[in-house]
Specification:
Two copies of one chain form a homodimer.
Chain A lengths: L1 E5 L7 H14 L3 E6 L1 H11 L6 E4 L10 H7 L4 H10 L5 E4 L3 H12 L9 E6 L6 E4 L9 H19 L5 E5 L10 H10 L5 E6 L11 E3 L2 H26 L3 H9 L1 H11 L7 E4 L5 E3 L6 H16 L2 H21 L8
Parallel strand pairs in A: 1-2, 1-4, 2-3, 4-11, 6-9, 7-8, 7-9
Antiparallel strand pairs in A: 5-6, 5-10, 10-11
Helix pairs in contact in A: 1-2, 1-11, 3-5, 4-5, 6-7, 6-12
Chain lengths: 345, 345
């Protein structure tokens, strides 16, 4: 398996990305092509002792978080994101992993590889930890204004991902809404509910925000605006909870002592909610394989993202998507037949 | 101050509501009229020893969580929700507090009292704890499909509430979105951003889900679908965090001992994130005062909700809303002048 790692555009800098690559090549049977600025990458490769173990493609430009995705892909032709996807296009690698501007990653994927047949909108899936197994949430930011058919396709793509990564043949799919009854929600969700019922997916109906972390559903579908808000809200809340707990524990000597005794429990707990364990968010719906990492990714997160990319290619996620989509087509065809107005469908 | 307490429709039953009323009358200078089923309320009044301290209006019907709000208000004329708002209409009380079906509470408020002048859509505000002070989020569920002008009015109403409850003359208002730049978000948020800039509110721009719990903003505005998802997601995550922590701590004797030593810190922490401390969500934008409590409200939450209702009436929240709305009118007038298409504005 050959994976291009975009080593630029992360908050922690290229050295941390190279360290992640080093972990991955030592742990798994993957070939990595690191893409990024020569000055930063060369010394990091040396430090990690992987100069002979990975390929390196130097680039001169960086897409920042403030760049407009479309402009960046058009104008920064020698950026690590663009060059990584060009490598994918000419089949020099099998997948791209990037911690950079997710809009630009998406734009590059679609520009160079094209959308998967019959997928209207590629999207980003993210894995949330729960009390039981992990849950896949899609879309988490690529598509902010959606129609019901887009939500149905997110359900299809996320089901394929869940099947591959968590070995669930028929993942339970829920629509994120504000009440459990199918009639509840906004116009988008109400429209999507009708489609999902007839989709061949293992659709269990609406789920509420409260259900997200319980773990009784494998896939949660929402538009990219709601998904992105939920993702960042969860991160923010988890951080706030740790801060408050630390503050309270710091107030008395007795509590501090208690914390020292319970330290391993806290560490285990932190590991359970740590995004780094889940290894990035797959970009689904284009003719290729890509994984987007959190901008703050540490080397563990990068290593895990590389392993996720490896799994997606090995199990051919796009074939699973097309297979599941085939079963959902009658629902989508009904939609066209019924001439549901554009604002609703 | 005279407050009607709808004692039906909560998860914990009428006795807990009566216990909350007992706490309130003993702590503050409020007159309470309890509305609900005679068989359950009478013995509870006796048990709490407040038979002579509160009024009681018996009702024979209960609006459940599964009732359609509009139907319930029309057909269940002797339900506690309907009767409580009738008391408000004929000025027998100054405010209503209810833990019942929030849609039905909203419908009854609008039916019996009417919308506040120039407010297109009344909504529900909720208080979230943060690392610093509390933050007011609106709307959290009353309006699932919104236009930009509705968001602006939520900003106006939530600012009035923040001013009164937290004594902030010019609350900082943020629009919940998926990027900090004003150009980022879905069509609704982009449209609202333009209105807020010219609204006279202390508008600080977009805020992300991550900012919610940091406490650098006083009011967060979103549509009722997003707000309700966020509210329930936060509850679910907080519960999951406690469960995971409990599980991990239960695994070793050493950790258990540590927990015992740090117990006070945990209790303080729990209090900081406990919804019961914040006392319910005000219903804003109708000609009256109402507070909706969480269905799971315990007596402390009910007591605090009664105190919130008391504060809203005392400080005349509706006058503040109208005053702040006056300053926002040019922004809304621009909107009409520009003939922004209905789908966007």
């Amino acid at each position: 398996m050959r994976i291009a790692l975009d080593a630029m555009g992360s908050d922690r800098g290229p050295a941390e990305m190279v360290a992640g690559a080093a972990m991955a090549v030592r742990e798994a049977d993957v070939k990595i092509t690191i893409v990024g600025g020569e000055e930063q990458i060369r010394p990091a490769l040396k430090r990690e002792g992987i100069e002979g173990l990975v390929e390196f493609v130097p680039t001169s430009q960086v897409v920042t978080m403030h760049d407009s995705p479309i402009d960046a892909v058009r104008k920064k032709k020698d950026s690590s994101i663009v060059v990584a996807f060009e490598l994918l296009k000419k089949n020099a690698v099998d997948a791209v992993v990037s911690p950079g501007n997710s809009g630009a990653v998406m734009a590059a994927a679609v520009k160079f590889l094209g959308r998967l047949k019959d997928i209207a909108r590629p999207g980003i899936a993210s894995v949330f930890p729960t009390l039981k197994g992990p849950v896949v949430v899609m879309d988490v930011g690529a598509n902010v204004d959606c129609r019901p058919k887009h939500l149905l396709q997110f359900g299809v793509m996320a089901s394929a991902f869940s099947r591959i990564m968590f070995n669930i043949e028929k993942p339970r799919v829920g629509l994120l809404s504000i009440g459990e009854e199918g009639g509840k929600g906004n116009a988008l969700v109400k429209g999507a509910h009708l489609l999902f019922q007839n989709s061949g997916l293992n659709y269990i109906g609406n789920v509420e925000g409260r259900d997200t972390f319980v773990g009784d559903v494998d896939v949660i579908v929402c538009d990219g605006f709601v998904g992105n808000v939920c993702l960042k809200l969860s991160e923010g809340l988890a951080e706030a909870v740790f801060s408050m707990l630390r503050e309270e524990i710091g107030k008395t000597l007795k509590a501090k002592l208690g914390y020292i005794l319970a330290k391993d429990a806290f560490a285990n707990f932190k590991r359970r909610v740590d995004y780094a364990e889940y290894g990035g968010a797959p970009l689904l719906g284009f003719n290729g394989t890509g994984v987007i990492c959190h901008g703050r990714s540490n080397k563990l997160a990068i290593k895990n993202a590389i392993l996720v990319a490896d799994g997606l290619v090995k199990h051919n996620v796009n074939e699973h998507i097309l297979e599941i989509l085939e079963n959902a087509k009658p629902a989508l065809a009904d939609l066209e037949d019924n001439h549901i107005p554009a604002g609703v469908a």
